[in-house]
Amino acid sequence: MGDGTFFGTLCAVDPEPRQLTQEQADLLTILARTVATMIERDNELNQRERAEQQLRHQLDYTTAITSSLVSGLYAVDREGCATFVNSAAERRLGWTEAELLGKDMHDIIHYRHTDGTPFPREDCPLLAVISSGEEVHVDNDVFTRKDGRTFPVAYTSQPIVIDGQVAGAVVSFRDITERRRAEETQARLAAIVQSSDDAILGKTLDGIITNWNRGAQRLYGYSAEEAVGQYFSLLVPPAHPNEVPVLLERLRRGEHINHYETVHTSKDGRLLDVALTLSPLKDSQGRVIGCSTIVHDISQRKQAEGELAQAFAAQRAANEELERINKIRRDFVSVVSHEFRTALTGIQGFSQMMRDEDFGIEEMREISSDIYEDAARLNRMIGEMLDLARMESGRITLDLERVEINEILMRVATQIQTNAPRHEIHLQLDEGIPELLGDRDKLAQVATNLLNNAVKYSPNGGRINVGSRLEGAFAHVRVLDEGVGIRPEALEKLFEPYTRDESVATRYIQGTGLGLAISRQIIELHGGDIWAESELSIGSTFHFTVPLDRSHPTGQ
Amino acid sequence: MAKIIFCEDDPSVQKLIRVALRSMPHEIYIAGNGAEGLKLIERERPNAVFTDISMPELDGLQLIDELKARSPLKHIPVIVVTASVQRHQIEELHRHGVADYLGKPFNIHDLRAKVEQFVSTDP
Measured between beta carbons, which residues in chain A are less than 8 angstroms from residue B111? Predict the structure, then answer.
């Protein structure tokens, strides 16, 4: 061979052996070299053809791969001019490969920023790869299409290294319009959730809080750092039944829970009336993986409801009080008319008989006296009614002077003893009681009323003790009888005007039933107190007090 | 001689009844309340009972119910004499078995007429 290697033998065949001449031998050698040269040339041709074929295959293969890529792919040379553009890139950019090859890619697709301002090629990270040899990844850039519209891209730019030299760069990019849109939607939703006045929180199906918005922070007082990772039960007041497990079970079954009213507690322990809206959160396969909770603070509404209920209750109470007063008035009218008619029965009946029938002069006098008593009784009742009406409307004032309470009691007791000779009235008076400022006639009216009652309700005579005692700043008067007594339930109503039912006890308030009510008004005007104690069949004790010093009057 | 029992707590009315009826040939008993009246009625078995409603201890309606619950007494006619019964309450009196009603203040002639009426209608 040309390079001296041995690769075959030239064989000349004769019919009989002969000695070759020098000339013949030289010819054969030339022939052998010629053959070798021819073979050599043929070999070289074959090899080149195969290599070219191989290269063509490889290219087709690569083209198939690159054109099947979803990502756009293009390559540039050291000057940034396109050397290759795949079909995905053609589609995205709107240019064909043929239009782009040899063109400066930066000037065609990358000359504007996201905000539309020019993108100087010195700043281009794609081209920086060529000088730095370092791979670059960018995911917030835009490319401009042939039609001038831009689209958001994420790209990777890698240097093409040949024989240790950067020969250019290959850029792989993806249109991230959809992803950006999804991100924006999510961000918008997140902003809505975050800025909502209602507390919105997420939790796992185990009840562990995973999300916590500002509304939740404002409502409960826990920051997101404090709340996230805690159990939802954190918000349930200690004394409150924990409904969380039941709610979580319903959510696990995929149920939506609307307007579930309950009570929560804030970080500082305040109780909050809240309405919860709970929705299961599902993954892409539809499995429930947690739940979202919207908490609406209904404390104000609850408070308003409470106030409304209170107002209603107050109104109802007022109505009931009005009804009670009306009943008392009705009762009073029937009591008064009963008493008036009873008194009139004597007056009318006796005078009718005196007119129509004959009586002796003595009997005439007696009957006249009865008529007179009944008339006086009527007059007394009318007087009492007017008295009480005046007192209740505050139109009566005390005629104050210095009085001795013992002197009043003695005078009244003597007078009543005269009218009730069968009763024994005993006086036990405390000489140490100083003079006090009071209305002589009205205090006497109270004493008269109490003593008259004592006489009236000790039907078979008996002892009546009238006592006085100095007690601190008050004179305390007691009137004790051994009469029929008063039932406990009647004791309370004893001093209320216009009340009377058919019982032993309330017969204490015979006549108009106003005697004790008037007594109470008089004593209260003096700044004192009046009350009664009683035991059935044993007797009753009536008490009243009058302050010695009226510099701090509690009455009028 | 017929017996009549009055239950009346007002002293003035008690006296009026005595004076008004003394010319009549009947025995008149007066009790101060329903309890006293019931005792008197059981003892005397009167021809008629005149009773007030509003009385201490045992009131008129309670007295009537007591009488109607006792077979020897339930046929005695009861006449209510009261100042407090209004027209619409008269029906209730009839349900209690009251025979008649006389309102206060009453005409003396009416009182005497009622007495005559119920004394002569012997059960």
Answer: 349
